[in-house]
Amino acid sequence: AAGAIVAAVGGVAALTAIPLGGPLLDLLVGTAYAEAASVAPWFVVLGTLLALVQLTTYAAVATENHRFSVLLWMTVVLQSVIIALVAHRDVSDIVAVSIVGAGLLWLAGVLLTRRPRS
Questions:
Q1: What is the mean pLDDT of residues 57-75?
Q2: Is 30 helix (H, G, I), strand (E, B) or coil?
Q3: Helical H runs in 30-113?
């Protein structure tokens, strides 16, 4: 239930960031970050996925599922290597790799921490 709420709020926030990302950035930090407006919705998607990963981490800790922590660290290392060696042309490359990593980690974590239905 908590994951569904986080995903719903994140989805609304990401959709809101599409038309309002630029004006909100201008209001909050000024025009110095105007170029970041195009990636603002993707940062919201990334933040939502990281929140879902955090919830999954709590579930893994609560169920003493050590496989998820190994998967989490493997994801961090792999993501870092990909960004360092290939995907560092601009911020959108880094955000894209991070979204894929967080999304796959969250999906794998959901599968690893699922309780069998009784």
A1: 92
A2: coil
A3: 40-62, 66-85, 91-113
